[in-house]
Design a protein that fits this description.
Layout (H helix, E strand, L loop, with lengths): L4 H15 L11 H17 L3 E5 L10 E9 L2 E13 L5 E3 L2 H8 L5 E7 L4 E5 L3 H8 L6 E5 L5 E2 L8 E4 L3 E4 H6 L1 H26 L4 E5 L1 E2 L9 E5 L5 H24 L3 H17 L14 H7 L12 H14 L18
Parallel strand pairs: 3-5, 7-9
Antiparallel strand pairs: 1-2, 2-3, 4-7, 5-6, 6-10, 8-12, 11-13
Length: 349
C-alpha cells in the first residue's frame, strides 16, 4: 500500500467514527457488574469477621478480590497472624485457567488461596480450598488448562485424579451470615476451621519454595468441621533431573544448617549423619559443583571426624571421606568364597 494513501484512510475512519454518536452512559451502571460487586461486599464483610479484609480495586484485579489477614485476640489487641487471599464468585460455575501461564500463576501464588461463592438470596457463603493447584505442582508438569468446579456437596475427599484436570470442589465452610453475626460460638468455629486450612496451604507453599514436588491434605473433610481422620501425602516418585536438582540444592543448605545445630547441641550421631549426606551430595551431583564447597557450619564436625583413628588427616575432609568408605563397604553385598557357598542338592531321578 502506498504510504501516501494511509493518511486518507485514517481520515476516513475517524470521520466515520465522529458520525456515530454512542448513547450516553452517564448516570447508569452495568447491572451484572454491580451484582458481582455486591457479592464482594458481602464476602468482605464476612471475612472481616476473622481479621482484616481489603478489597482489590477492580482496575487492579488480576484474579484476586480480597486480600485478608487472620487475626488472633490477645488481651485487648487483635494481632495479625496469617495472610490469605480470596476470589469471589456469585454462581456455582467452573473456575477455569485457560493457559499454562494462568495455571502457573495459580500454583505459585505465594499465599493461601480460597474460592468463595456468595448466595445473596439466602445470605450464605460457601468457601472452598484450591488444593488441585497442589496436585498440579506435585506431578511436576503444569497443564495447559485446569478447571475447578464448586459444588454444594457435604462430603469432601482429598484431590482425586479423574482422568483430566477437572476437579470438583466441596466447601470447607458453609457460612450463614445472620448466624455468624448472632452466634459467637458459630463464628469462632468458622474462624478455627479457616485457620486450619490456611495452615494446610502454608505447608504446601513451603514445599514449593523448597523445590519439593509433593503435597498433602486431609483425606476426608466436611463443611464447618475441623478436618479429621488421616492425611494424604503424595509426591513425584521418579522426577526428571531438573526437578530433583531443585530439591537437592535446598537439601544441601538445610543439612549444613541443621548439622551444625546438631553438633552444637550434643546430637553427635545426627550431626555426623547430616555431614555425611552433605559431603556425598557435593561429590555426587553436578548441580552443587557451582557452589563453593566451604566448610561453613559443618567445620567443627569435619574437625572432630579428623581426630578419629582412621582419618588420614591429610586434608579437611579426610575423616568424613574415610567414614563414607566404611559405610559404603558395609552396604555392599558380601561375596561368598567358593568354599563357603552352600551346595545345592542334586535332582533325584
Amino acid at each position: 500500500m502506498p504510504a501516501a494513501v494511509i493518511p486518507d484512510i485514517l481520515h476516513h475512519l475517524f470521520a466515520v467514527g465522529r458520525d456515530i454518536k454512542p448513547m450516553s452512559a452517564t448516570g447508569s451502571i452495568a447491572p451484572n457488574f454491580h451484582e458481582g460487586s455486591r457479592s464482594e461486599y458481602l464476602a468482605q464483610y464476612v471475612f472481616s469477621s476473622f481479621g482484616t479484609a481489603v478489597a482489590v480495586p477492580h482496575q487492579e484485579d488480576h484474579g484476586l478480590d480480597l486480600i485478608c489477614t487472620l487475626t488472633e485476640r490477645i488481651g485487648r489487641r487483635a494481632w495479625a497472624k496469617a495472610p490469605y487471599t480470596v476470589q469471589v464468585k456469585s454462581e456455582l460455575k467452573p473456575w477455569v485457567f485457560e493457559s499454562t501461564n494462568s495455571v502457573e500463576w495459580l500454583v505459585k501464588h505465594p499465599l493461601p488461596f480460597f474460592l468463595c461463592v456468595v448466595n445473596k438470596k439466602t445470605s450464605t457463603l460457601l468457601v472452598y480450598h484450591t488444593a488441585p493447584r497442589w496436585y498440579a505442582w506435585g506431578v511436576g508438569n503444569l497443564p495447559e488448562r485446569l478447571e475447578m468446579t464448586p459444588t454444594e456437596e457435604t462430603e469432601g475427599r482429598s484431590t482425586q485424579w479423574l482422568g483430566e484436570y477437572k476437579f470438583p470442589l466441596v466447601p470447607i465452610l458453609a457460612i450463614n451470615v445472620p448466624q455468624l453475626v448472632a452466634d459467637d460460638d458459630y463464628a469462632t468455629n468458622a474462624r478455627n476451621v479457616l485457620e486450619r486450612w490456611i495452615e494446610i496451604d502454608n505447608h504446601n507453599l513451603t514445599r514449593i519454595r523448597t523445590g519439593l514436588h509433593s503435597w498433602q491434605m486431609p483425606n476426608e473433610y466436611q463443611p464447618n468441621a475441623m478436618p479429621g481422620g488421616g492425611t494424604v501425602l503424595q509426591w513425584l516418585s521418579n522426577p526428571p533431573e531438573e526437578l530433583l536438582n531443585n530439591g537437592i540444592k535446598h537439601l544441601s543448605q538445610v543439612l549444613e544448617c541443621i548439622g551444625s545445630q546438631f553438633h552444637a547441641t550434643g546430637n553427635s550421631v545426627a550431626a555426623v549423619g547430616a555431614t555425611l549426606l552433605h559431603r556425598y551430595l557435593h561429590q555426587r551431583f553436578p548441580i552443587l559443583a557451582d557452589e563453593a564447597h566451604l566448610t561453613g557450619g559443618l567445620s567443627s564436625v569435619y574437625g572432630d571426624l579428623n581426630k578419629l583413628p582412621w582419618a588420614k588427616k591429610t586434608y579437611l575432609f579426610s575423616g568424613v571421606d574415610e567414614l563414607q568408605k566404611i559405610v559404603e563397604k558395609a552396604l555392599q553385598p558380601e561375596e561368598q568364597s567358593p568354599a563357603n557357598r552352600q551346595k545345592l542338592p542334586e535332582n533325584e531321578t
